[in-house]
Amino acid sequence: MKIGAIAIYDTALKFAPNDLKTLALKGFALEKLSELQLSQQQYTEAIKALKQAIAYDSAFSRYHSDAIDISYHGMIIERLAELYLTNKQYTEAFASYQQALATYETAIQLAPVDFCNHGLKAGALASVADLHCSLSQYTQAVAYYQQAIACYNTSLEIKPLKANEFDKARVL
Q: What is d(CA 65, CA 169) in angstroms, rounded to the nearest whole number?
């Protein structure tokens, strides 16, 4: 069963399949549906909705080469990795984290002096390291923590922020 807004966006996309605003809005509606399902502990449904949101966001991002849009796409992919972790789907979580890291790297290439993109990448690297730790894979965890520290350092060199300092301290 389709939910109100999503069904309306589907209808609109039948008439204008490449309309950027509609693609973005449908992706956003699916993202919010995923959040609602997660709050109700419907993990499988939440993962499905978020994967659909990523697909629509990917379509939107293809037409936008804006670092902010691309980093937002990375954040959605990272959220999917966290959902996989909640559902103990570790292989899928690793794959999603790797996809998020690649997306953040694309954003960094477009805007190398944007401290946020470096901070987002650092956070994702720390999450991968935490996952390795939880699976007793300490050598891999150390490597990811070191990469996270380097990204935090870059972010802090660009713009010193207390929040990034605290995040970096957590990794140390």
A: 33
Residue 143: is it exposed, middle or buried by C-beta count within 10 angstroms (0-12/13-18/19+)? middle
> How many residues are listed for the chain in this entry?
172
Go through the domains of the chain in sequence order and give each one's CATH number: 1-64 (no CATH), 74-172 (1.25.40.10)
Q: List pLDDT tens digits, range 27-45.
A: 888 888 898 998 999 999 9
Instruction: Report pLDDT digits (tens) over 102-131.
Output: 999 999 999 999 999 999 999 999 999 999
Q: List, in order, residues 6 or more apart from 90 with CB less than 8 Å away.
A: 84, 131, 135
Q: What tokens appear for 41 in the block?
A: 């502990």
* Spatial separation of the C-alpha atoms in residues 59 and 24, rounded to whole Å: 8
**Dihedrals φ, ψ of 3, to 5°?**
-90, 145
Predicted TM-score (pTM) of this structure: 0.84
